[in-house]
Every structure is written in structure tokens, then in C-alpha cells.
Amino acid sequence: MSRSVITFQKNISLLSTATAVGGFEGSGPLNSTFDLVCEDSKFGMDTWEKAESEMVRQASEAALKKGKLSSHDLDLIFAGDLSNQCAASSFGFKETNVPYIGLYGACSTFALSLGMGALAIEAGLGEHVMCAASSHYSSAERQYRFPLEYGCQRTPTAQTTVTGCGCAILEENEANKIRITQFLPGIIEDFEINDAANMGAAMAPACASTLSRYFSLTDTLPEQFDMILTGDLGMEGHKILKELLYSQGIDIRSNAYDCGNMIYDFKKQSVNSGGSGCGCSATVFCGTIVDRFRKGELSDILLIGTGALLSASSVLQNETIPGIAHLVRIQKEK
Amino acid sequence: MEWIRCFFVGGVLCVIAQILIDKTKLTPARILVSYVIAGVVLTGLGIYSPLVEFAGCGATVPLTGFGYSLAMGVKSAIDTKGFIGILTGGLTATAGGIASAIIFSLIFSLLAKGKPENL
The whole model's pTM is what? Predict the structure, then answer.
């Protein structure tokens, strides 16, 4: 029973989703799929950290509104972000008066929150659970690298942290056909990468490990799924993932996609290696992916959030970057 | 002719830094610090002063030029004040540069707000 894929018995469905993003994301290829776009990424605040909390607050209110609920109706919130001590989420949700469970999975936080939210409903802990994750380019730069004012150049393999918050409300509802059906929590993998400017390479092995575990535990094949969607491996990391799996006899090349490669236009927006951050998979999933489920274009996908478990200190101490990848399966019943 | 030499030498120093950014894992901070140290070492070895004479600002403006000022400052302080010059010379020679960096940064931080380069 231990270490198997968690298959939910209840009908845990997506009641509503909402997204709030910054100006750069709002001028990308997915701009029509976002609910709220703030052109200057400030959300009316005077610091980047406050902007991120406000963005979280706005996204969560939008998700509640779309689901025709108020915060009184929520039983639990699972949320996290990239900031120190997940302050963005704590401050973003502090006015809600809802039991709050903070999570950290780096860029895999959104998939992790969906899995945990589904687990809570399966365990009978609530009827309506909110799952959210966010990141903000400017606060992430200040924390992990340098403040914007430093004006440094970024390397070609570096990814761009997405300014965005994606929020989903889960409920147990037989009538709603878009469901979280399975959850496979990831195992921390360390392949001794220590280049913080190439996190895709650090996360790809963990992603490959979770996917190969999933396929062997469930006896499924990659072709069965409409999409095998990773969080933010970026160009480099996604290539490495496909190669790693191919060398194990698993071919995902025809239906593998990466949120980090979808959120920006590589030609028109100079984004080096693609998008990253908790907000990446959160906003891509809660926006365009859920849209496509509703339209009937998708019916069975694997969402694999990928996280690089480094800290600002671990990098300075020349530690390697361990990775983790959490998998959730989303299906639409016919 | 002087301007062409200046342009060429300054350009080469900047190209080296760009190659380091593109092809190595060195962070910008490490590259900048290496440039200062390189300037000190090359001045100590007697290589940098001739370059300054040859290229003027093309050698003094890049950060290697800051290392050059530090090293030259230490040299002249030792000449006039003895061994204490090892400690006082560098900062004395670069005092103008350091003070202006602080003062102008403060002024501009009050006048301008930072924003991400992609917006």
C-alpha cells in the first residue's frame, strides 16, 4: 500500500479556477486565458512583495466569485509560493478567516496543492478546498539573485520567474466531470547539479523519476494521455527529460509539453530558457488547460509540477540542487 | 587615433566579460570582482600602466581600471607614508569613485523606481 499512486475514490472536481498575472505574462501568447492582468506587475502596491500578496488575494477572490462562493464556504486553503517563509501566501490569505495550510514545493507547489487538496476532500475534511500557488518575478529576483536595481545581465540558460497566481477550488461533486483522479507525491532526487542558472537540468531527473514510477505503478503508457504536462523545465530541462525517459524505454516525445515553454513567446519576448516559478504551472493550468478541458479538447492529462529545492544560502555554500516532481492526473468523464 | 585605441581596448575588455557571462557559470558579481583583482595584479606586474598610456579611458573606465587605481594608490602611499600605505593607499586613491557611487546611487534611488527589464 505504501508508495503507490493515490487513486481517489470520491469525485473530486474542479469547481472553478482563476488567474492573476503581471504585464509580461499578459503580453504573451496565453494572454486571453488569464482573468486578471496587471500591466506594471505592482497590483497597486509600493513594493514587489506586497504586490505578490495582493495578486494572491485578487486571484483567490476571483476564484470564489467564479465558483459563486464566499470565503465562509471554504473549509481549507492549501497554498504556497517562492518567497521566504511563503509570506506572499500568508499575507494574501490572512483576511480570509479560513483554515490555512502553507506548502512549499518550489515550482512544484501548485501540483502539490492540488494533490493535497484532493487528499483532504477524499479524507472527508471538507467540501470546498482552495489550492493556490504564486510567484513574482521581481520579488524572486531580489530573494534568489539580486534586486532589480542591480541591473545585472541574465545568462542564456536562466529562466524567467512568472509573475502570476493560479487558484483552483475543489469540491466533491458527481455532476462536475473535470476531476483530480490520482496523485503521486514525488521523491527528492539529487543528481549533483549545482548551477542555479540552469534549474531545468536540476529538476529533469526528479521529473523522470516520478514519471517512470507512475507508468510502472499504474501499468499505463505515455500515449494514453492527451498531455504529459510538466511545470517549468524550460527548453533545456524538457529536452533532458525526454532523453532521460527515452533511455529508459519510455517515449513521451509526441505528447510532452511544458508550462514554462507555453507561457511566453520565445521569438517576441526575450525569455532565455522559458518561464519558471510556482505561478507558471498554476496560471497555465488554471487558465488555458482548464479552458481546454471545458471545451472538450482534453480529457486525460498528467500534470507534473517540478521543483528545484535550493535556497539562497544553499547556493552560496556551493550545495547541489535537489529536485522534486509531484504528479496529479486530471480527467474529464465523458 | 587615441579615440580608436580607447574604443578598441575598452571593447575587448567588455567582450571578455560577455563571453564569461555566456559561456561560464560565473555570476556577474564574480566577474566584476575578478576584474578588479585582475587590474590590481596586472598593475603590480607592470602590465597595466602601459595599457593605460596606450588606451586612456579604454583602460581606466572598465573595472580593471579600478584595480589599477587601487594598486597605484597603494604604491604612492607606501612611497610617502611607509608600510601603513598598504592599508590607506587603496581607499584614498579610489575615494572619489566610491563616494560618487554611493551619492549618485542614493540620488537616483530617490528619483527613480526600479522595475523589471521585461516590462
Answer: 0.92
